[in-house]
Specification:
Blueprint (H helix, E strand, L loop, with lengths): L5 H11 L1 H23 L10 H16 L4 H18 L5 H17 L2 H33 L8 H84 L5 H28 L4 H4 L4 H10 L4 E7 L7 H20 L6 E7 L2 E9 L2 H6 L11 H10 L3 E6 L3 E9 L15
Parallel strand pairs: 1-2
Antiparallel strand pairs: 2-3, 3-5, 4-5
Helix pairs in contact: 2-3, 2-5, 3-4, 3-5, 4-5, 4-6, 5-6, 5-7, 6-7, 7-8, 10-11, 11-13
């Protein structure tokens, strides 16, 4: 297979170091915000930079670093940032205010439940508080210093300024919130389209499997049935056959019946007529159905599973389904299957199953990964942009799949290891 391009390797490296890169970006943004805000109050002059302003600028680093994974914390930091700015009563930190708008956009786009409601409520509440602060800092406080607060008509200026500030801040916060909602709708639409296309592809694959099963049944099953019937007819209808010939016919008949049973089992699997093994849609449901079928599955998970529409999740479930089905059919069901699943930035699936002792001692190749649908699992991992490796010992076999959590399907190298 062709080696991945430099761009693909760069994306893979960035995905592995996503957290560190996010914090680095947040730190750079915080430094930029601090530089601009300090300049806005008099860089190179005798103006005093309030330490609260520096603290507000420093908060932009964690705000940006946690806004995707912890939107509630990011929203709280944005409010703290605004409070620190207002506590100065002398400056308007432009870049820190822009950071608050960007955080509100991100929270509105990604947050769920109470955090999403809190982001919505932050628009009118924040507009009212910010407009009051701006009126106090730019109109009321200068008037008090100049003893002009009670001048004729000044109360009207304050009222007009309050209304203007309220409209401006409401517009800014509302645009940030609305943009987040629009992006959220776009994300939902894309996820729905991805899920629909996946369902259509699955339906098309199922139709092809059904057609193939029907054709195989018409050719193989019918031919084997005719062969068995003719063999039995010759053996029963000819009582004076030599013993060696009768043994040969018995062997042909038994072999034909065994082959017919294997063909019917394969066709049933091809048509997905075994819901306990092939119809589960989640990892938990799949493990429970396998336990019902007689396979002890010891499940250990870390992290939080992604949405069902992601290619990484779908490929994980299908690879796991194939691995557990093979363990049920060919492995030692008296021993538990060890299933380790890490829902990290790179989904890691490890399935370890005991081989049948008799087959292992006899050196039987049955149940080895090459005969257990390894090619299909490799193709599923590759279609999701991941890798799949296999290792085996005389008593166990292990499959390890690594799939990207967020990336769309992309070509990736497939690794195969033999211990």
């Amino acid at each position: 297979m062709p080696a991945p391009s430099r761009l693909a390797r760069l994306y893979a490296w960035a995905d592995q170091h996503r957290t560190a890169l996010t914090w680095a970006w947040g730190a750079l943004w915080a430094a930029f915000v601090a530089l601009i805000d300090i300049a806005s109050v008099g860089l190179g002059t005798n103006a005093t930079v309030p330490w609260l302003l520096l603290a507000a600028s420093a908060l932009t680093a964690p705000m940006f670093a946690v806004r995707l994974k912890h939107p509630a914390l990011a929203l709280g930091l944005a409010w703290l940032n605004a409070i620190l700015q207002m506590a100065t009563l002398s400056v308007v930190a432009f870049m820190s205010s822009v950071s608050i708008l960007l955080t509100l956009f991100s929270v509105s786009r990604h947050a769920e439940g109470r955090t999403r409601k809190a982001a919505t409520a932050s628009v009118p509440v924040g507009a009212a508080i910010a407009s009051g602060y701006l009126t106090l800092a730019t109109l009321v406080q200068p008037a008090l210093q100049q003893n002009a607060l009670h001048s004729p008509g000044y109360s009207r200026v304050i009222w007009q300024g309050e209304v203007a500030y309220l409209m401006f801040v409401s517009f800014a916060l509302g645009c940030a919130w609305l943009a987040g909602q629009l992006m959220r709708s776009r994300d939902s639409y894309r996820a729905s389209r991805t899920q629909t296309r996946e369902a259509q592809r699955e339906a098309q694959r199922q139709r092809e499997r059904t057609d193939l099963a029907r054709d195989l049944h018409d050719v193989l099953a019918h031919s084997l049935s005719v062969m068995i019937s003719l063999t039995d007819g010759v053996r029963i209808g000819t009582p004076d056959l030599p013993e060696r010939s009768r043994q040969a016919l018995d062997e042909v008949s038994d072999t034909g019946r065994q082959a017919l049973g294997d063909v019917r089992s394969f066709l049933a699997r091809l048509r997905a007529e075994q819901p306990d093994e092939l119809s589960a849609t989640t990892v938990e449901q799949l493990c429970e159905r396998m336990r019902t079928a007689g396979l002890d599955v010891a499940l250990s998970t870390t992290g939080r599973a992604p949405e069902l529409a992601t290619p990484g999740y779908a490929a994980t479930v299908r690879i796991l389904r194939e691995a557990l089905t093979n363990a049920l059919r060919h492995g030692d069901t008296t021993q538990p299957v060890q299933l380790l699943l890490d829902w990290g930035e790179t989904i890691t699936l490890q399935v370890s199953n005991a081989r049948l002792l008799a087959s292992a001692l006899a050196g039987d190749s049955r149940g080895m990964p090459g005969h257990w649908g390894l090619t299909g699992m490799q193709e599923r991992a590759q279609s999701a942009g991941g890798t799949l490796s296999v290792s085996q010992t005389p008593t166990t076999w292990t499959i390890i799949a690594r799939l990207p959590r967020h990336a769309d399907a992309a070509a990736a190298p497939i690794a195969e290891e033999h211990a």
